[in-house]
Write a structure and sequence with these properties.
754 residues; mainly beta; Maltoporin, Chain A; five-stranded mixed β-sheet; 7 helices
C-alpha cells in the first residue's frame, strides 16, 4: 500500500475508500446499526483516529470536523474551547443525530448536543462517520441535516501510556494522560484517559475549566466480547452567549458611532449604562456583555455504557445498556427585576413606600437522567444481509430555579425555589434493514423501515411562572430505499429517497400557547440523494446532489417569549437543495491536495415575520409576509481545501506540514433575506506542523504546532438579530449581535508515548 499523507484521510476519505475501509474502525454491532458501509446509497464521510488526532489541539469536537463537506462551526468564546456548535447542510446541532457507540447523545428535550459536556472527547474517538441527509440513523430523533456516529471501542493496540501537554494563545492549557493495557490474560483489556483543559477565551472573561475521565474495560472470547465504558465530564464556563453588537466589529466604526448606537439600545440602557458602554468601546470585538464575576455555566454529565457482542451461528447479536446522568446550573445576576418575576410581593415600608424592582442572583438548574437499551441482530445470507433491532429509552428532567440572593427581600432565604417543572420522555423504536445484491455485486438494493413512538409529558411551573402542562403522544414511520450501482472497476453511482420525522423540542411546546395549544406540529422531511464516485490511481472525485423537502419545519418568527427566547412556528413548505463535490489529487507520494465544495439553495416558500411595535401598550404589529426567502444560517457556498506535504521522513523521524483553507459564504441571521441582518462570508487559513521521533527501544515523541487563522481575518461565524417597530411599519429598528472568532492564534502540543 502506497504511503498516503494523513490529511487525505481528513478531507476526502472517499478518495481512498479502500484504504479507509481496511481500518474497519466501525465494527461493533451496536455501532454498525447506525452507520453506512461503503456500498450504502447515502452521502457519508469516514474519519479514523489518526486523521482526528492529527488536528486535535484540545478544541471541542466540532472543530475537528470543520474541513468536512457542508460543515460550519462556531465558538461562543471565539477559540473553540467552551461552548461550540456545528451546522451540517445549514441544520444546527438539534437536527443532527449524534451517537457514541450507537448510543444517542442528543439531549432528549432540547435535542441539542452540548459538546462541552464531554471535554477532550476527540482524544478517545477511534473513528467516526458523518452522514449527510437522513442517512441510516435508527435511534433518537430523525436526522434533518445529518448524523455523526462516534466510536470509542477501537481495536486492540500495543500496551502504552501517552501523555499530552499543550499550551497556546489566551492562556489555553491542556494536560492529558491516556493508557492501554493491550490484551491481558483471559482476553481482558483496559484503556482510559484523564484530561484537563482550561482557557481564558478570546472573548473577555469567556473562560473555561474542563475536565473529563474516560475508561473502557473489555472482556473478549472467541465468539464475542463485552465492554463497560465510562465517560465523565465536568465543565465550568463563563457565559458568552449574548454576543457582541455587530456595529463594533465593522471597519471604521468610531466611538461616536458606538455611543449613538448605544443611545438607541435597550440592552445598553439607552446610553445610560455607562460601565457596559465603556467596556464595549474599549474591548470592541472581545467585549462580553456579562460582567458579574460568577456568570457561569456549571454542569456535570456522566455516561455509562454496557455493550455485548455475540456471534450466534451465522448471526451477530449486539446489545447495549446505557444511562446518562447530568446535573448543573447557570448563575445570573439580574438588575432591576420585578418581584412578581419570582412570585413575590414587593415589600412595603412603614412609611408606605417601597422598592418597585430588585437586584437578584439566581441559579437555573437541570437534573436529568436517561436510561435505555438497544438490541440489534445482523444475519448475513448468500446475497442478502438483514439487520433488525429496536431501542427503548426513558428520560426524566427536573428544571428548577433558585434565588441565591435578592436585594430588598430579607425574608427570602438563599436557595429559595421559585419555579419547578419536570419533563418525562419515553422513546421506543424498531427497525429492519435489508441489503440485497443483484448480478453478483454490481447492483445493491438497500431498504429500511423504522417505526418510532414518542411520548413526552411535562408539568409544573416554568421560569416565567406559567403553568406547564404538556402531553404529546406521537407515532412516526420512517422508510428509506436506495441503490448502489458499480459502473466500472473505478466508478459507482447511487441514489436514495428517505423520509424522516421529528418531534418539537421542549421550548417549542412551552411556547405553543402563543399560537394555540394545537398549533405546534412535528416536522417531516423527504430527502432525495444522487451521487457518483470515481477512483483512479492518483486522483479521485465524488459529486452528490440532494433535495431535502420539509413540511412543517420549525423556524423562528421574530416573536419572543416571556424570557426573551425566540418563538418557533411551523412553516408549511421549505426546502434545501444543493450539490456537494469532493476531489483529491496525489501529485506524488509526499504531496497531495484535497478539497470539497457545497453549492446550495435553502428557501422557505412563505415566511411570516412578527415585529413588535413599542407603542405605549407594547403590542406587536400584524405579521409581515416574505415569499421565497432564504433559511437563516444556510450559506449558499461552503468550501475547503487542504495541501499536505510529507516534508521528510526516515525510520525514526517524520516531519509533516498541512495548509488548510475554509470558506463560508454569506449567512442570514433570520429568515427575511435582509442584507442588513446577515453575516458576511469569510475565509480562514490554518497551518499544522508536526515533528515526530520514534525511539528504537519503543515509544515516540511528537511536537505539533497549530497556527490558526494565520492571515488574521476578523470574522464572525454566528449571531442573532432582533427587529422591532418604533413608529409605524416604515420605522424598523434592527439590532444584530454576533460571535467574533479569534484572529491569529496558536497552540503547541507535546505528546509522549511510552
Amino acid at each position: 500500500m502506497r504511503k498516503i499523507f494523513i490529511v487525505g484521510l481528513l478531507l476526502s476519505p472517499l478518495v481512498f475508500q479502500s484504504q479507509i475501509d481496511s481500518i474497519n474502525v466501525l465494527k461493533p454491532a451496536a455501532v454498525s446499526a447506525v452507520t453506512s458501509d461503503d456500498r450504502s446509497p447515502f452521502a457519508h464521510t469516514n474519519l479514523d483516529s489518526e486523521a482526528l488526532h492529527t488536528r486535535d489541539s484540545g478544541q471541542d469536537l466540532p472543530f475537528l470536523l470543520r474541513l468536512t463537506p457542508s460543515v460550519v462551526i462556531t465558538s461562543d468564546a471565539g477559540n473553540g474551547i467552551g461552548y461550540t456548535g456545528m451546522r451540517l447542510r445549514g441544520s444546527d446541532a438539534s437536527r443532527i443525530n449524534v451517537t457514541i457507540n450507537g448510543v444517542p447523545l442528543n439531549d432528549a428535550e432540547s435535542q441539542n448536543v452540548y459538546w462541552v459536556d464531554l471535554p477532550d472527547l476527540g482524544a478517545s474517538v477511534s473513528g467516526l462517520q458523518i452522514q449527510r441527509g437522513v442517512g441510516t440513523s435508527t435511534v433518537g430523533p430523525g436526522a434533518f441535516g445529518g448524523s455523526v456516529a462516534l466510536n470509542t471501542l477501537g481495536d486492540i493496540v500495543q500496551p502504552n501510556v501517552k501523555a499530552v501537554l499543550g499550551m497556546g494563545s489566551f492562556n489555553s492549557n491542556r494536560q492529558s494522560v491516556s493508557w492501554n493495557t493491550g490484551m491481558l490474560a483471559d482476553g481482558i483489556s483496559f484503556d482510559g484517559r484523564a484530561s484537563h483543559i482550561s482557557s481564558d477565551g478570546y472573548i473577555d472573561r469567556a473562560s473555561s475549566e474542563l475536565s473529563s475521565l474516560y475508561t473502557s474495560l473489555v472482556k473478549r472470547w472467541t465468539s464475542g466480547k463485552v465492554s463497560l465504558t465510562t465517560m465523565l465530564g465536568h465543565e465550568r464556563t463563563y457565559q458568552a452567549w449574548y454576543g457582541v453588537p455587530q456595529i463594533v466589529t465593522e471597519e471604521n466604526t468610531t466611538v461616536t458611532d458606538i455611543q449613538d448606537w448605544a443611545a438607541e439600545s435597550s440592552e445598553y440602557g439607552y446610553g445610560y449604562d455607562t460601565q457596559r458602554i465603556s467596556d464595549l468601546i474599549e474591548n470592541r470585538r472581545t467585549h462580553n456583555y456579562y460582567n458579574y464575576e460568577n456568570e457561569v455555566d456549571d454542569y456535570n454529565q456522566n455516561h455509562f455504557q454496557l455493550h455485548l457482542e455475540q456471534n450466534i451461528g451465522i448471526a451477530d447479536l449486539g446489545v447495549a445498556l446505557y444511562t446518562t446522568t447530568g446535573s448543573g446550573y447557570y448563575e445570573q445576576y439580574r438588575a432591576a427585576d420585578t418581584f412578581s418575576d419570582y412570585g413575590l410581593i414587593a415589600p412595603i415600608y412603614p412609611d408606605s413606600s417601597g422598592p418597585e424592582t430588585t437586584n437578584v442572583i439566581r441559579q437555573r438548574w437541570l437534573d436529568n437522567r436517561l436510561l435505555g437499551s438497544i438490541v440489534n441482530i445482523t444475519i448475513p445470507l448468500e446475497e442478502m444481509t438483514i439487520v433488525a433491532g429496536g431501542a427503548f429509552s426513558r428520560y426524566k428532567g427536573d428544571h428548577f430555579g433558585e434565588i441565591i440572593w435578592m436585594e430588598h427581600a430579607a425574608d427570602v432565604l438563599p436557595g429559595n425555589t421559585y419555579y419547578d417543572n419536570i419533563g418525562n420522555k419515553t422513546d421506543v423504536s424498531g427497525f429492519v434493514r435489508v441489503k440485497h445484491d443483484f448480478s453478483g455485486d454490481i447492483l445493491r438494493l438497500q431498504a429500511e423501515a423504522q417505526i418510532r413512538s414518542v411520548l413526552y409529558t411535562a408539568e409544573g411551573v416554568d421560569a416565567d411562572l406559567q403553568d406547564v402542562l404538556i402531553n404529546d403522544d406521537l407515532l412516526f414511520f420512517n422508510p428509506k430505499i436506495g441503490v448502489d450501482y458499480i459502473l466500472s472497476s473505478s466508478s459507482r453511482g447511487y441514489a436514495s429517497v428517505s423520509i424522516a420525522n421529528r418531534e418539537p423540542t421542549r421550548t417549542d411546546y412551552l411556547d405553543s400557547p402563543f399560537w394555540g395549544a394545537a398549533s405546534i406540529r412535528p416536522e417531516r422531511l423527504i430527502d432525495f440523494e444522487f451521487g457518483y464516485r470515481y477512483l483512479a490511481k492518483k486522483w479521485a472525485t465524488e459529486i452528490g446532489f440532494y433535495h431535502m423537502d420539509y413540511k412543517d419545519q420549525l423556524i423562528a418568527t421574530g416573536m419572543l417569549n416571556d424570557v426573551g427566547s425566540s418563538v418557533r412556528v411551523n412553516v408549511p413548505s421549505s426546502f434545501r437543495q444543493g450539490i456537494e463535490i469532493q476531489a483529491g489529487v496525489e501529485f506524488q507520494p509526499r504531496f497531495r491536495w484535497d478539497g470539497n465544495l457545497t453549492v446550495s439553495r435553502n428557501q422557505i416558500n412563505v415566511f411570516s415575520e412578527i415585529l413588535y411595535d413599542y407603542n405605549p401598550d407594547f403590542e406587536y404589529s400584524n405579521s409581515v409576509n416574505h415569499v421565497n426567502t432564504d433559511i437563516s444560517f444556510s450559506p449558499a457556498f461552503i468550501a475547503a481545501s487542504v495541501f499536505g506535504y510529507d516534508v521528510w521522513s526516515n525510520d525514526e523521524i517524520q516531519i509533516k506540514c498541512e495548509l488548510s483553507t475554509k470558506y463560508v459564504g454569506k449567512q442570514y441571521l433570520d429568515n427575511t433575506s435582509n442584507d442588513s441582518r446577515s453575516l458576511p462570508g469569510y475565509v480562514v487559513n490554518d497551518v499544522v506542523l508536526s515533528l515526530s521521533n520514534s525511539f528504537k527501544n519503543g515509544g515516540d515523541l511528537q511536537l505539533s504546532v497549530f497556527a490558526n487563522n494565520i492571515l488574521d481575518n476578523m470574522y464572525s461565524a454566528n449571531g442573532w438579530t432582533y427587529s422591532y417597530l418604533s413608529g409605524g411599519l416604515n420605522a424598523i429598528t434592527t439590532e444584530n449581535y454576533v460571535y467574533p472568532q479569534a484572529g491569529r492564534h496558536g497552540f503547541v502540543n507535546l505528546t509522549m508515548t511510552f
